[in-house]
Specification:
Elements lengths: L1 H23 L4 H14 L6 H18 L1
Helix pairs in contact: 1-2, 1-3
Length: 67
């Protein structure tokens, strides 16, 4: 149960960090997605293009709901 909490906290942090990056990044979406993918790879998380698109959509939905 503790491991699940740690994973949930990590994913929450990744989501918030990615959302902040997307909101404040003055770059094209493609460049932003590439940078997010690089950060995730450095953390040992590998996503294919479809998974990255899903993650971006989830982040966008969370940000929109928070407004």
């Amino acid at each position: 149960m503790k491991a699940l909490s740690i994973v949930a906290a990590f994913l929450g942090g990744v989501t918030l960090g990615a959302a902040a990056g997307i909101l404040f990044a003055p770059e094209r979406g493609e460049d932003t997605r590439r940078k997010i993918a690089e950060v995730l790879r450095k953390k040992g998380i590998r996503l294919n293009r479809a998974e990255m698109e899903d993650l971006v959509d989830q982040i966008a939905a969370e940000v929109k709901d928070a407004e």
